[in-house]
Amino acid sequence: MGLWAVLRAIWFVIVGIPIFYVVAVLFGAPLLSELYETLTFAIALSCLVFFPLGLTFTSYDQLGRLVFENRPDTKRQLVAQRIAFGSVLGAWGGAAVIPLDWDRPWQIWPTPCVAGGVIGAFLGLLLAIFALRCGPLTFSKRQKWKIV
Amino acid sequence: MILQKTGRATCDNFTQSSDTSKNNTVFAPNERTGGLTSLEEMLFYSLAGLVQLVALLIFAFGFFPSKSPIPGFATHESQKIDGEAQSLSLDCVEKISYDKPLIDQLVIVVIDALRSDYLFDEETPMTFIRSLVESGNRLAFNAHVQSPTVTMPRIKAFTSGTVPAFLDIVLNLASSGFSEDSIIAQLQKNNQRIAFYGDETWLQLFPNTFLQRSEGTVSFFVKDYTEVDDNVTRHLDHELKHWNSWDVMILHYLGLDHIGHSLGPKSTVLPGKLREMDSIVRKIYDSLTENNRSFGMVILGDHGMTDGGSHGGSSDQETLVPLVFLSPQMSAASVFIDGKRVEQIDMVPTVSGLLGLPIPQNNLGAMLVDVLSAFTRPQQLHEQLSDLMLVHANAVQISKVYESRFGSEMSDQLDQLTRRSGAILDAYCRQGSLPEGEPVSALIAGYLSMIQKMQGRLLVSFANYDMHLIYIGLGMSLMVTLSLVLRLLYKYYRQETHQWPSFSTAILWVGLALHAISLFASSFVEEEHQIWYWLLPSYLILFGFQQTGKLLVHGKVEQSESSKNDIVKLLIVLVLHRVLRAWNQTGDKWAHLPDIGDWLNQPSHKNELVFLGIGSITLITLMLLHRDRHRLRISHFLCVTGLVLVAFAHFSFDRTVLCVRVIWLIAAACAFAFGRRLWALAMWTALLMKPHNLPLLCGVVIQGRLLSSLDIHPLALYFALAAAFFYTGNSNSLASLDVGAGYYGLAQYHPVPVGLQMLISTYAGPLLLFCVSMT
């Protein structure tokens, strides 16, 4: 994992920003009127999701297997994948507090989603550590779950 | 299995996952249905549906409590301290009798949707009403009103002193005469002359009452907030000049409510409207002061408004309204600058007392003694005794209501108080003074605390639900749900291979559970659209992600083409969804935010509105034609004519009765003579939509076409239907119901067509989406 891996990860993050911006808008974020807020969310999520994936990247085929079929080749890839999935799930779930009528400042977009993403990433990391410490590792075999 | 149509997709999708789907497509019929024949299966589901419906009905009966008012009208005799039983000399009682009015004239000014902070805020534009505090000519209360905060039930409440039932909302549309005892009925029985100007609802509630002079203003055109009030005010000069010709004048101003509905409570025209109301009050007050008749004024709001500008619910903003008594004859000891908290129905016995009328039979209000004692009367002692008799009348009257509801638990206390006040009256009549150690004020306080106790229990009981029926209904519903879930699990268990549902299917079930859980929080009920606007894209994006994965990982040639197609279609549906959800802001918290609908409704964007409206009707026509392209018949000519007429109805005929009825005829012909039911539905929904919502229908039709061609789970269609319900600006609040849509093509009120058209226009989005995606 050298300099190139870091540069590739940064490149991944930059590509990821518009993707998450579009996703946020599709979920209801204003198109342009809250540009900074939505951009903050997109940058944060892109960092949480694409930076670990970029760091452990080996090939696009492997990335596809890792993301869609839950088949990591190395321990690092497993950790990266759990962090990425955790942060997406966290950001998704964080949105749930926005409509509540508590009128707290942290309920305003994008705070709960960014916070949810960070918490989700942390939980993903914990899960990964737990899996690596306790679970029997079965790399590149049929996994218990997968997306496709 | 990939290109399976949604409409025909079965619950087996639950157990599908892409690589096993090929092997699983051929089920033995036995396994498919889990041991039941298809007839038995159908019976099972029909029965479940039927029981669910019955459960809902039982629940509704428990949830909407009925009330049984005491029939007939109150008289003074029934509410007096019984002179003979107390062996009092009758003419003495006559002398201090409370049935002599304290004022000769009363003006009631109802300002629709006047909420508390509009008057009690320090920077209120209503400066005249506020300035009367210093002279003691004003008594202001912060009155609490009961739900539903809708005009018609509220008028019933503050004229009769009762709590409106929730079912009154249904009657709100059909407001027929109000036959219960009320202030108005009592005024009429006692030959008082009433002049009325304002909301037409009053004329429907009390027909043949305001014979002398009256004019109703219709409250359907919410966009009008000047003329609707000018039509009331223009009669004022005449009435004030002929002040001798009426005893009670009622004015009901709708403009403020209309501003709330169309521009929101923070609108810049709102302070001007408040100033206008204030100047009208001042005009009446000043003009009547010059005459030599004593008079009083009551100024009240019938309900408040939310920050979204609507009303109907039970938030503080909707349920707290000012209740102000003004009179030059008043010299209030305490002024309650910020308003003492009372019930709005308390005004009923108070007004009855001021006018010397019997208190309406079913009244639950408690006499506002502060108001009575603020009116100066010649003899101090006399005055106190008169107050005592008024409070006694109130107590007797309310204890009858209490008795009819709970049995006679309070009668002991009342008897004791009656005996004590009888003794006081007796002493006063014989010796001209009060007995030692029995202050009248203590007795009044005793009565009041008793009245308030009864009022508290009665108010709760009228707002109460029949918990038994609710539990039975909920229990039945739960049993049906459980048996369906068990059936599903059993079917799953009977299958040979057990597969986890795919990720996108799983999120549907999780989403369904999350939605059910969310309904336990009131803000998620108010903002239910947010749940669906969150779940639908979640599913669609995950489904698209899955299709992308298939394309990348499996990469089979024959699959890739359809996957690519699917992804493009999903993207279109997603973008459409994003646009449609921005069309009408709904819910409670963000309902006031500007949206595309508001933009289109601005007068300066008239051209865009017409262009978009006609464009979307054209597009709907083309899409429906494209759908029927293989079996075009002559009858399609009629269908197209119908839709073209709808466009004309919207933009050149203003949907007049004749025009709407012609379209009804064409739609009926299309549906029943030629079997083109989808065309008929499109015509009818497009006809009833507000013009700015026509593009919504077009978007929903596109969504339906695209979704039906995708291999999505049936539950996903349900998500889309739920979202489509909210696109048109619907919410779980009654306030978002478009009442006006029911009346197109009708000259007067008929319950069936009005109800049917309101149903069609409310559910236009999901109806059209469902029918398009199913056929």
UniProtKB/TrEMBL annotation, chain A:
<feature type="transmembrane region" description="Helical">
    <location>
        <begin position="9"/>
        <end position="32"/>
    </location>
</feature>
<dbReference type="GO" id="GO:0005789">
    <property type="term" value="C:endoplasmic reticulum membrane"/>
</dbReference>
<protein>
    <submittedName>
        <fullName>Phosphatidylinositol-glycan biosynthesis class F protein</fullName>
    </submittedName>
</protein>
<comment type="pathway">
    <text>Glycolipid biosynthesis; glycosylphosphatidylinositol-anchor biosynthesis.</text>
</comment>
<dbReference type="InterPro" id="IPR009580">
    <property type="entry name" value="GPI_biosynthesis_protein_Pig-F"/>
</dbReference>
<dbReference type="GO" id="GO:0006506">
    <property type="term" value="P:GPI anchor biosynthetic process"/>
</dbReference>
<keyword id="KW-0812">Transmembrane</keyword>
<keyword id="KW-0256">Endoplasmic reticulum</keyword>
<keyword id="KW-1133">Transmembrane helix</keyword>
<keyword id="KW-0472">Membrane</keyword>
<feature type="transmembrane region" description="Helical">
    <location>
        <begin position="79"/>
        <end position="100"/>
    </location>
</feature>
<feature type="transmembrane region" description="Helical">
    <location>
        <begin position="38"/>
        <end position="58"/>
    </location>
</feature>
<keyword id="KW-0337">GPI-anchor biosynthesis</keyword>
<dbReference type="Pfam" id="PF06699">
    <property type="entry name" value="PIG-F"/>
</dbReference>
<feature type="transmembrane region" description="Helical">
    <location>
        <begin position="106"/>
        <end position="132"/>
    </location>
</feature>
Automatic annotation (TrEMBL), chain B:
<keyword id="KW-0256">Endoplasmic reticulum</keyword>
<feature type="transmembrane region" description="Helical">
    <location>
        <begin position="609"/>
        <end position="625"/>
    </location>
</feature>
<keyword id="KW-0472">Membrane</keyword>
<dbReference type="InterPro" id="IPR037674">
    <property type="entry name" value="PIG-G_N"/>
</dbReference>
<keyword id="KW-0325">Glycoprotein</keyword>
<feature type="transmembrane region" description="Helical">
    <location>
        <begin position="502"/>
        <end position="525"/>
    </location>
</feature>
<dbReference type="InterPro" id="IPR017850">
    <property type="entry name" value="Alkaline_phosphatase_core_sf"/>
</dbReference>
<feature type="domain" description="GPI ethanolamine phosphate transferase 2 C-terminal">
    <location>
        <begin position="463"/>
        <end position="649"/>
    </location>
</feature>
<feature type="transmembrane region" description="Helical">
    <location>
        <begin position="663"/>
        <end position="689"/>
    </location>
</feature>
<dbReference type="InterPro" id="IPR002591">
    <property type="entry name" value="Phosphodiest/P_Trfase"/>
</dbReference>
<keyword id="KW-1133">Transmembrane helix</keyword>
<feature type="transmembrane region" description="Helical">
    <location>
        <begin position="632"/>
        <end position="651"/>
    </location>
</feature>
<feature type="transmembrane region" description="Helical">
    <location>
        <begin position="469"/>
        <end position="490"/>
    </location>
</feature>
<keyword id="KW-0808">Transferase</keyword>
<dbReference type="GO" id="GO:0051267">
    <property type="term" value="F:CP2 mannose-ethanolamine phosphotransferase activity"/>
</dbReference>
<feature type="transmembrane region" description="Helical">
    <location>
        <begin position="749"/>
        <end position="772"/>
    </location>
</feature>
<dbReference type="Pfam" id="PF01663">
    <property type="entry name" value="Phosphodiest"/>
</dbReference>
<comment type="similarity">
    <text>Belongs to the PIGG/PIGN/PIGO family. PIGG subfamily.</text>
</comment>
<dbReference type="Pfam" id="PF19316">
    <property type="entry name" value="PIGO_PIGG"/>
</dbReference>
<dbReference type="InterPro" id="IPR045687">
    <property type="entry name" value="PIGG/GPI7_C"/>
</dbReference>
<feature type="domain" description="GPI ethanolamine phosphate transferase 2 C-terminal">
    <location>
        <begin position="689"/>
        <end position="769"/>
    </location>
</feature>
<dbReference type="InterPro" id="IPR039527">
    <property type="entry name" value="PIGG/GPI7"/>
</dbReference>
